[in-house]
Amino acid sequence: MTYLKATTFLIAAALAAPVAAQQAGGRLDIVVQPEPPGLMLGLVQNGPTQLVAGDIYESLLRYDTDLVPQPSLAESWTISDDGLVYTFTLREGVTWHDGTPFTAADVVFSADVFLRETHARLRSSLAYVDSITAPDDLTVVFTLKEPFGPFINAFETGTMPIVPKHIYDGTDYANNPANATPIGTGPFKFEAWEKGSYIHLVKNEDYYIDGLPYLDEVFYRVIPDAAARAVAFETGEVDVLPGGSVENWDVPRLTQMDNVCSTGNGWEFFAPHAWMWLNNREGPTADAKFRQAVMYAMDREFVKDVVWNGYGKVATGPISSKTNFYSDDVTIYDHNPDKAKELLAEMGYDGTPVRLLPLPYGETWQRWAEAVRQNLSEVGINVEIESTDVAGWNEKTSQWDYDMAFTYLYQYGDPALGVSRNYTADRIQKGSPWNNVEGYDNPALDAKWAAAATMVTPEERAAAYLDIQKEIIDDVPVAWLLELEFPTIYRCDIKDLVTTGIGVNDGPRNAWIEK
Amino acid sequence: MWKRFSSNMGAMVGVVLLLAVIVVALTAPLLFPNGPWQMVQRPFLAPMAVDGLPLGTDTLGRNVAAQLAYGARVSLLVGLVSTLVALLIGVPLGALAGFYGSWVDEGAMRFTEFFQTIPNFALAIVLVAIFEPSLASITIAIAIVSWPPVARLVRAEVMSVRKREFVDAARLAGLTRPRILLTQVLPNTVSPIIVMASLMVATAILLESSLSFLGLGDPNAMSWGYMIGAARTVIRTSWWLSFFPGIAIVITVLALNLIGEGLNDAFNPHLSRRRARAGKEKA
């Protein structure tokens, strides 16, 4: 325990005062797209809210780009050998932005009361939790009903934002007037929000790590049009384009400018994974041979290079290489049209047309669908693209009215959090465009997924997930495409912007501008 | 008639251009047997950069020349079919309204006005969005927004023709009214309809391109509007992707307009002579 404390303290010290001379001061203009519906991270957890509110709110831990937990509000932590008791020691001298001291009671209130009610994704992890207690002001103990390996990944800002008890206890959370002026413990304080224009955050002078943050202020700029965002970056009006804020085709042009850097890092925690749902219920896609043929027919390397400008990685299976327990010791589907033709001949594919539903998120996804259609038609599969808007896409996928449909989902660091939900039968839900939309039903694998989630040691879990990956990859319930990377584009004199697994979301904490 | 038409320089240029587009459209499968969607080379190759790709490649490395050729098929097909359908709706309605008058006329014209009050393009967008974009739905949508002027034109022509003496003569000869309409009146309204139809094809091609540009084209059919729409995001780095389909649209629409103008002059020699004289006087 003391040893752990000592090492984590060292890490914290290293983060706080590294050797290179960081320079304090300056302001950062970051694009936020679209404008967030609200900034109270405990109530709203969509992408833009996480981007902005990740500077205001904090959780117990942070995660580096290898998803190794780092101290944040918790200074150190221990997990009991049976995997049931998580004990966190909180940092001393932390205050909320309004000056009230932060204590263990805030953590218990947030996790046990507030977020249980408001945060659906966390709720499914909290189902494993028996009790959350605060023996003293600086200690929080989570006791689990059964071991749940991925629980250590639940302490990320967007997953478990710690909210102030003194403001929310006993109130109607959704209608609390304080939601408009969020109060957190983070490195930046909320200053102003000019709707349709910008959100202004200023440095938290009382931040509990000396010297941090370096920046004086951060502006999140709302610019509704993708081309206008690219121009704003070119003219120097904004300094940072977070992933996905400009069209992919603009990325090479912008990154070739002077003093412009880009990185694909900062998405490790989310690990956005793209695939095509193949309708397992009916039509040619119900045949595993057909699904394997689709995998061999696609030239995914080409799509990565051309459509995604080389960002990302060809997916080998359901688990992203950035997520824990990934293995590439599985059947690899390379681009092999002959093999695809063979498989189609074996199954006796008769040319029945299959419908392909692109994701209605702009040109990139449309081009991707065209490339897939061309690949498939080259091996003799008859593909028709259906065009649709977001509402139509939701309707068709949730009513299972499709043959092949593009999608991508986050993985949250652990297969039990973000992967198994897409393949187990209990997540088949007509009316929902999420999770097991393809209708894959394999009871033997369901049992394996469930067992792997509650194993105690990482070694056991790794073995279990390897077994699962080998089996499911041969079955091809969905056609895995790419591990997506949304490049963050920024001026090179901004340093240390992307240092964690959630990238720009909590990046301004350590960022500094070289003068 | 043909003599007058063929002596019109502009009209003949139009015919030659249109024939060229038609030939390209018809021979597209022979020239590019692999279709317009095949990814043949590196993306964003400039025109003439590589042998065999005179117009370069697009965002996915597809042959722009092949796309243009197949796009011609879609443009011409949609233009012709939607005009035919519009004529099938507009001509009978206008003829009945103009010939029978009274409440038939009232009813038909109110119905027509109902369609005329909604802006063409907005209505076309709504229709395509409702029916899901496909060649059939686009063609029908264009037909639905373009028939009202036809109905009005035919009505006016029929109204003027039905008062002529030969119509009275036909009635005295004992012909039934529907027969008079079909055999005596309508044939005398054909020339303005032909002129109008040639211009409608041009408008339909523009409408189809605009719809595709907005992403409401048939995703399985290569069209010029689609090409420009897809090239819009890269217009600053790859001009040729929007330039060539743009030129193709200009040429085709110009050709059809020249032909329409020539037909108009050929059918109305008095008008054209008067115009020529007026031109000279001005000069």
User: What helical percentage do the residues of chain A reach?
Assistant: 25-40%
CATH class of chain B: Mainly Alpha
What share of the residues of chain B lie within helices?
over 70%
Distance between the first and last residues' Cα of chain B: 28 Å
Q: What value does the Rg of chain A take, in angstroms?
A: 24 Å
Task: Write up what this structure looks like.
The complex is a heterodimer of chains A (515) and B (283). By secondary structure, chain A is an alpha+beta fold. Chain A contains 15 helices and 21 strands. Chain A has helices spanning 2-16, 47-53, 104-118, 120-126, 165-168, 226-234, 251-255, 288-297, 300-306, 337-347, 363-378, 390-398, 415-418, 443-453, 458-475; strands at 27-31, 61-63, 69-71, 74-79, 85-90, 129-136, 139-144, 188-194, 198-203, 217-221, 240-241, 260-263, 273-278, 313-314, 354-357, 383-385, 404-409, 478-483, 488-491, 494-495, 512-513. In chain A, strands 14-18-13-17-15-16 form a six-stranded mixed sheet. In chain A, helix 3 (104-118) crosses helix 4 and helix 8 runs antiparallel to helix 10. Chain A is globular and about 70 Å long. Chain A starts with a helix and ends with a strand. Residues 1-14 of chain A have low confidence and may be disordered. Chain B has 283 residues and is mainly alpha-helical. Chain B has a single domain, classed as MetI-like (MetI-like fold, Orthogonal Bundle). Helices cover 74% and strands 0% of the residues of chain B. Chain B is built from twelve helices and no strands. Chain B has helices spanning 2-6, 9-31, 64-100, 102-116, 120-131, 135-161, 165-172, 177-185, 190-213, 224-231, 240-267, 269-282. In chain B, helix 11 packs across helix 12 (269-282).
